[in-house]
């Protein structure tokens, strides 16, 4: 099972990073639809595509408006999963006729319990603390598993630690380097040390840092070595990176 990193920035794109979008092509699963969603088209390998949104902030949902191009000359059926209030906000505001005059070719599906996916995969979702609310996801397929946790403030007392325990790969937001803890808490984002501590406490196998700030568009904007000192098997996601799970 491969994870394709199609957008790893937070807030807005930079010269090297698009905003949040991750894809499991063989399962037809996409996590979030930021500006990186334009890269989905060439990777579609299934007759159905399930997009799971963490929340409704623009850097995670604007790609829903790309679906006409994404599905051009394709017969792919698309479902967009999110909490009902987020679906309502997307339909009322992002897809307002004044902003986007034609509804995109997809079905919106409110999150209600676990989701059964192709090949026997099971996806579970859980709440995260973030302004406006967010959710994380855990996907299990046989003996392989991953968790996607974005737009939240990492802490050793976070409720979601038990939800991600023991996963093979943890994809976790890391918007800030250390030293901006107060601002991270205010905005609902994470600094590098708490993220690495969460990965260690949850007993995950690998940690991939994502949703970095676009303000410093450099190779390592968050301090990767700091995370590796706490949790050695840590890497920083980059656009179009492919990770084997």
UniProtKB/TrEMBL annotation:
InterPro entries in the cross-refs: Metallo-B-lactamas (IPR001279), RibonucZ/Hydroxyglut_hydro (IPR036866)
Ranges for domain Metallo-beta-lactamase: 29-211
GO molecular function, one term: 3'-tRNA processing endoribonuclease activity
Keywords: Hydrolase
Pfam families, per the entry: Lactamase_B_2
Listed name of the protein: Metal-dependent hydrolase
Lineage: Bacteria, Pseudomonadati, Planctomycetota, Planctomycetia, Pirellulales
């Amino acid at each position: 099972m491969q994870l394709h990193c199609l957008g790893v920035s937070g807030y807005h794109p930079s010269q090297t990073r698009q905003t949040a979008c991750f894809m499991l092509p063989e399962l037809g699963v996409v996590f979030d639809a930021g500006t990186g969603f334009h890269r989905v088209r060439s990777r579609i390998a299934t007759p159905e595509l399930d997009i799971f949104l963490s929340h409704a902030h623009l850097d995670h949902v604007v790609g829903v408006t790309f679906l006409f191009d994404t599905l051009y000359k394709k017969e792919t059926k698309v479902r967009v999963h999110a909490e009902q209030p987020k679906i309502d906000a997307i339909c009322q505001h992002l897809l307002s006729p004044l902003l986007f005059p034609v509804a995109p070719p997809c079905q919106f599906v409110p999150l209600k319990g676990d989701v059964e996916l192709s090949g026997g995969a099971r996806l579970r979702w859980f709440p995260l603390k973030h302004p406006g609310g967010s959710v994380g996801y855990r996907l299990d397929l046989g003996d392989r598993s991953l968790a996607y946790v974005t737009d939240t403030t990492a802490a050793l007392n976070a409720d979601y630690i038990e939800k991600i325990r023991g996963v093979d790969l943890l994809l976790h937001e890391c918007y800030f380097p250390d030293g901006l803890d107060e601002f991270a808490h205010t905005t609902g984002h994470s600094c590098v040390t708490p993220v690495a501590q969460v990965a260690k406490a949850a007993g995950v196998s690998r940690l991939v840092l994502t949703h970095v700030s676009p303000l410093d568009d450099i190779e390592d904007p968050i301090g990767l070595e700091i995370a590796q000192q706490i949790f050695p098997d840590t890497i920083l996601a980059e656009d179009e990176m492919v990770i084997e799970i």
